[in-house]
Amino acid sequence: MMGRTPAAESTQDRIALPVVLVGVLAVGAAAIFIRLADAPALGIAFWRCALGVLALLPLAALRREKVPRARDLGTGAVAGIALGAHFGTWIASLDYTSVAASVVLVSTTPIFVAVAAYLLFGERTSVVSFVGIVLAIAGTTAIAGGGPGSDTAALLGNVLALAGAVAMAVYVLTGRSLRTGGVGALPYSIVGYSAAALALLPVALLSGVQLWGYSATTWFWLFVVTLGPQLLGHTVLNWALEYVRASIVSGAILAEPVIAALLAWLILSERPGLATLLGGLVVLAGLYLLLRGDTSNLPPPESDDSGTSIQD
Hints:
By secondary structure, the protein is mainly alpha-helical. The protein has one domain. Helices cover 75% and strands 0% of the residues. It has 13 helices and no strands. α4 packs across α9 and α5 runs parallel beside α13. The longest helix has 29 residues. The radius of gyration is 19 Å and the shape is globular. The two termini are 28 Å apart.
């Protein structure tokens, strides 16, 4: 990629924080757009990734971005497959459980990242982060159980949302070495989205899922999901990580479940239950402590490898 001038870097630094705000609003609206799209979950997941690739390729060509090669390409592909699993399971969860419960549960990715980093790489966590993990697990248990009167469908949706969080953790742990190793946000996103779409395609076809023949309204919402949460959300926040500390981005992302729950209440008339409200507050408090403990002594953004997850 062509080098950036000091003036360009100064401009990018100034717009980074507003960009984070736009990105968080975009990903917070993802569940609402998905609910409005009258298409199967695997179809939405496939087209979200495939259309994202088509939208980013011209920009990458214009900027003369370098394509990852050899080991980097393989690592990016593995990360992309995990991203496809994340979208497939999380989007499917919205067919069974509430938006609020689904988004809070899928936002528990940092818990799985922290636990896996400890088990696989021996990365120790602070006392503050440990307390955060315990709190978040307690809140997750309350939401996943659904409270009194919960049906089997809601429980299935909650499990799918948690599976989406686990898949996103794999995506973060697999792909973070590429971002800290010099692979740019655009080529990283293109490789990841491409691998995700290619992984979802045979699964959808073998499952008999319809991938075309949708109504004009459904295609409209699919494009909105791609341009909003996918590009203004995932891709833009990945770019912002080069200029803003992961602690700031991670803290901002905690607003995502709140935005999603509020929009679901206003647009879909979906009022969250007591278990979701109380459990969600506990989860958010736990995630805040977890992220605060792990990012309080981070290096500058250029060498940041905190594993911040951008999802939904």
